Amino acid sequence: MAGFLQQVVEGLGAGAIYASLALALVLIYQFTGIVNFAQGELAMFSTYIAWQCVAAGLPFWLALVLTLVVSFAGGMLIERVIIRPVEGAPELTLVIVTVGLFIFVNAAAGWIWTFLIKDFPNPFPGGVLEAGGIHVSISTLGVLGVVAVVMGLLYLLFRYTKIGLGMRAVATNPSSARLVGIRVGWMLALGWGLAATVGAVSGVLVAPVLFLEPNMMGGVLIYAFAAATLGGFDSPLGAVVGGLIVGVAETLAGAYIGVIGSDLKVGVPLVIIVVVLLLRPQGLFGRAVVERA
Amino acid sequence: MSTLEVEDLTAGYGDARVLHGIGLTVGEGEICAILGPNGAGKTTLLRALSGMIKARGRVRLGGTDLAGRSPDALARQGIAHVPEGRGTFMPLTVEENLRLGAFVRRGRDGVNADIERIHGYFPVLKDRMKQAAGSLSGGEQQMLAIGRALMSRPRLLLLDEPSLGLAPLVTRELFRIVQAINAEEQTTVVVVEQNAHLALGIAQQAHVLETGRIVLSGTAEQIRADEQVAQSYLGYRV
Question: Is A168 in contact with B92 (Cβ distance < 8 A)?
Answer without folding.
Answer: yes
